[in-house]
Design goal:
Blueprint lengths: L2 H11 L2 H4 L1 H14 L4 H12 L35
Helix pairs in contact: 1-4, 3-4
This protein binds zinc ion.
Length: 85
């Protein structure tokens, strides 16, 4: 995977759940754990797109935003992979 491809994948993941920051952070975190060579790219893009740090610092009181602010229909393709919330 090239750096350009990594950026495209990250931009797609940023649209998870309709552009949900919480879901995107989860995916970005997993991505940079699997591809540590693109960690800086993931952090930069996340900040650029959501305006907040990818990693919430320890002891941070950040948060409190609502995960899914409205009614949402989630299709359960696999109960194991996507348990009902
Ligand atoms: Zn979400």
């Amino acid at each position: 995977m090239t750096r350009d491809e990594a950026e495209r994948v990250l931009r797609i993941m940023a649209e998870a759940d309709g552009g949900c920051e919480v879901c995107a952070r989860d995916l970005f975190t997993k991505f940079v754990a699997s591809f540590p060579e693109y960690r800086d790219l993931g952090e930069r893009l996340f900040y650029e797109i959501f305006g907040s740090e990818l990693y919430i610092r320890e002891g941070s009181t950040e948060g409190g935003h609502r995960h899914h602010p409205g009614p949402i229909v989630m299709y359960n393709f696999s109960e194991e992979l996507a348990p009902m919330r």
